[in-house]
Design brief:
By secondary structure, this protein is of the alpha+beta class. It is about 15% helix and about 35% strand. The radius of gyration is 22 Å and the shape is elongated.
Length: about 100
């Protein structure tokens, strides 16, 4: 299980604006849903706002549309820790639970 997670936000206003402009990052699937192709990358160092990663919409090649920033992400460490065999052995054998 991975102990790192990325959390952040996407600017829905910018995303909708680019979709309305006909940006080529958007496509409609057979199920009728509209999808946005994105590009996410992790920076070598944190930016001035302490972000670790950025998100852009990803245009189709040679269409004249640009990569537009739509959000940022931060890496957070998961509180989940591996347990050792010693931890397991220290668990009570009878927990008095009613089930």
């Amino acid at each position: 299980m991975s102990k790192q997670q990325l959390i952040g936000s996407i600017c829905l206003t910018d995303l909708i604006e680019q979709a309305k402009k006909g940006h080529t990052a958007f496509s409609k699937a057979d199920n009728g849903k509209i999808y946005a192709n994105v590009k996410v990358w992790i920076n070598e160092t944190k930016d001035q706002f302490n972000n670790d990663a950025s998100i852009q919409i990803n245009p189709k090649a040679d269409t004249g549309f640009k990569f537009e920033y739509i959000g940022n992400l931060k890496i957070v460490e998961s509180p989940v820790k591996d347990i050792s065999q010693q931890d397991i052995q220290q668990l009570p054998e009878d927990d008095d639970l009613p089930f």
